[in-house]
Amino acid sequence: MSKPLPVSSVKKLDFRSSEIGEVGGLRISRRLQIFDKSSGIRFLIDTGSDVSIIPASKIEKTREPSPFLLHAANGTKIRTYGNKFVSVVLGLRRKFSWNFSQADVTSTIIGADLRLIDGGTKLHTVCGLSKSSVYGVTTIAKDHPFRDLLVEFREITAPPTMRTEVRHNVTHHIQTTGPPVASKPRRMPPDKLQAAKKEFETMMELGICRPSKSSWASPLHCVPKKNGQWRFVGDYRSLNRITVPDRYPVPHIHDLLNNFLGKNCFTTLDVVRAYLHNKINYSYTSRCTTR
């Protein structure tokens, strides 16, 4: 991979379309490359990609790959091994966070239209050109029978960014009785503690959570995922005991099954991090504190 151009030699950025050539029967693309000062990783900028991808580690490749496949511009299928939020430091006085798909590739690609010059501060980042045989990564195969329809609603197949604005005004209320409940933090092995800190740092950068001085506190609990990673949840059993129950009439299962009579097409939906899509009313956010 080519080295980043020094700042003194960057006079004018050329934003023309990337050059594509063929070498030994393999199509090679010259893409803009940026350098992350914190991690030392070089990222290729590919506005033609639907997703951002990062090479999966050797340990991740030993696990069962995800059923979620990616497709390169040359028709190659790319196996994935889950998602990972990564923050990139480009010297623009703020971090950029993306949800990367951990894939069976050798290059890290940011599939976004990224501004390399801050219009307010006039700060800019060091960049260069690099060759790549993987580009134009999409979530939909070219021969998919419903490609046109899926392209029209591309957000359905793209990995979640967790930055999408909530499209409803429904908020969750947690009405309780009695004084606040608080539990001591549970001790964790070093690997779990490090993973928990990293997870909370990512969620704070995405605006999902914030530091709290609440008198409420529920202990943090770790649940292993199928891919070997950890899911961090709050143990809210003490909070549940003093919460006023919601007596909403849930439909009877037999009535729901009767509605399936004569139906031929069935769809199942799985929301990624569904709990984080539930907005808590501001007056009750202190009750959700974990430590």
Helix and strand arrangement:
Layout (H helix, E strand, L loop, with lengths): L18 E5 L2 E10 L6 E4 L6 E4 L2 H4 L4 E6 L5 E13 L5 E9 L4 E3 L16 E6 L14 H6 L37 H16 L14 E5 L5 E5 L2 H5 L11 H6 L33
Parallel strand pairs: 3-8, 4-7
Antiparallel strand pairs: 1-2, 2-3, 2-9, 5-6, 6-7, 10-11
Could you describe the 3D structure shown?
With 291 residues, the chain is of the alpha+beta class. The chain has 2 domains: 18-155, Cathepsin D, subunit A, domain 1, CATH 2.40.70; 188-286, HIV Type 1 Reverse Transcriptase, Chain A, domain 1. Helices cover 13% and strands 24% of the residues. The chain has 5 helices and 11 strands; from the N terminus they run ββββαβββββααββαα. The chain has helices spanning 58-61, 147-152, 190-205, 237-241, 253-258; strands at residues 19-23, 26-35, 42-45, 52-55, 66-71, 77-89, 95-103, 108-110, 127-132, 220-224, 230-234. Strands 1, 2, 3, 8 and 9 form a 5-stranded mixed sheet that branches. The protein has a 4-stranded mixed sheet with strand order 4-7-6-5, with no helix packed on it. A hairpin with a 5-residue loop joins strand 10 (220-224) and strand 11 (230-234). The longest helix has 16 residues, at 190-205. Mean pLDDT is 76; it is low at 1-28. Residues 41-75 form the Peptidase A2 domain. Keywords: Hydrolase. This is Peptidase A2 domain-containing protein. One of its GO terms (molecular function) is aspartic-type endopeptidase activity. InterPro entries: Aspartic_peptidase_AS (IPR001969), DNA/RNA_pol_sf (IPR043502), Peptidase_A2_cat (IPR001995), Peptidase_aspartic_dom_sf (IPR021109), Rev_trsase/Diguanyl_cyclase (IPR043128), RNA-dir_DNA_polymerase (IPR053134).
